[in-house]
Each structure stands twice: as structure tokens, then as C-alpha cells.
Amino acid sequence: MNYAIIGLGKIGTAIAQAFARQGIEVAVAGRRPLDVLAAKIGPSLVAQRIEDAVKADVVILAVPFGTHQDIGRTAGSWEGKIVIDATNAYDVPPEELGGLPSTAAVAKAFPGAKLVKAFNHLPAGVLAQGPTPPQGGRRVVFVAGDDDAASASVAKLVDRLGFAPIELGKIGEGGLLIQARGRTWAHLIFQDLVKFE
């Protein structure tokens, strides 16, 4: 399975650093050339054009919420791919989402893909601190998706990156705990939780 991160803003960079710490190869792409930034983060990052990065099996969407449709249009087909939605729709009116959780609204731009919400609930600075906080244990990353196999696959990736995955179930059920809507943040957003084995 191969991976790509679209967007190397603060969240995308924090996720890329997690890949680099584990030496896992990941393509990175954005609206500007990322060769220098990718090289600075680590040798396992491969800078690509967005059109090439979206060919990965698993695409991590770490772009501003309003640009997700542009990314959706760059792939010839999203069929069978996993798209990890790390966006937040804060300040997006619920009417623009059609009354749906933000990830369900994002899914419309990626027909055929299996959307999984993850990596969005922690502030970028906290996520960038890595999976092991000073008090020990492993920092929690929540995972929610409507396809059980895709959610399990993302949970395995979260674990491989060193974090503790906590699956919340379907996007419209437990996943609502990590969805921003309008001018409100869901209950688990910003919660820096740690799991002790």
C-alpha cells in the first residue's frame, strides 16, 4: 500500500513528520513545489505533483476545507482508494454541507473512494510533538468511517505511525464527535488524550 499527503500546511507537515519518524515512504504534494520542505522533513518523503500523488492507494487530505473539491477533480478515478479526511469545516455554514457531517460532504467530491476521518482533532502543534507525550503512553488519534475495512486499515496506519488509534464507528454516529460544523467544534476536537497499554 502506498501513501500520499496532499497539503503541507501545519497539519500536513505534522503528519509528514510522523511518516518520516518511522521511515515510511510517502508522496507529498501541494499547490506550490515542496521539494525543499520535503527534503528538510526527511528522506522518506517524495515530492510530487498533485496529479501524481492522487494515484496513491491512500490519500491524506490535509488542505483547507474549501479546496477539497479541486483535489477531487484531479484524479481520473477514486474507485477503491482510501481518502483520509484531515480537514475541518469550522466556519462553514451547515447549509453548505447539506445537513451532512463534513466528511460525508467531502465524500461527494471523491466518488468511489472510501472516506475515513482521522488526524483532524488535534491542533497541529500537538500532533507535531509526535505519538509519545512526556508522561508516556501513546497519543490518541480518532478514526471514523462508514467502511469497516477502510477504517481498520487507517487504524493500522495510525498504529504504525506510533499513535494509539481509537475507532469511533460510522461518520454520522461516533464520527460526529470529531466534526466541526458552522462555528462549533465537536466534543473530542482539541482533546489531547493518551492511551496507556
What features would you describe in this structure?
Keywords: Oxidoreductase. Residues 3-88 form the Pyrroline-5-carboxylate reductase catalytic N-terminal domain. GO terms for molecular function: oxidoreductase activity. β7 (138-145), α7 and β8 form a beta-alpha-beta unit. This protein has 197 residues and is α/β, with parallel strands linked by helices. The two termini are 27 Å apart. The chain has helices at residues 10-22, 35-41, 50-53, 68-72, 102-107, 124-128, 148-160, and strands at residues 3-6, 26-29, 45-47, 58-61, 82-85, 114-118, 138-145, 164-167, 194-195. The chain has a single domain (3-191), classed as Rossmann fold (3-Layer(aba) Sandwich). Strands 1, 2, 3, 4, 5, 6, 7, 8 and 9 form a nine-stranded mixed sheet that branches.
Summarize this entry quickly.
This protein has seven helices and nine strands; from the N terminus they run βαβαβαβαβαβαβαββ. It is of the alpha/beta class and 197 residues long.
List the SSEs and their pairings:
Layout: E1 3-6, H1 10-22, E2 26-29, H2 35-41, E3 45-47, H3 50-53, E4 58-61, H4 68-72, E5 82-85, H5 102-107, E6 114-118, H6 124-128, E7 138-145, H7 148-160, E8 164-167, E9 194-195
Parallel strand pairs: 1-2, 1-4, 2-3, 4-5, 5-6, 7-8
Antiparallel strand pairs: 6-7, 7-9
Pfam families: F420_oxidored
Protein name: Polyketide synthase
Keywords: Oxidoreductase
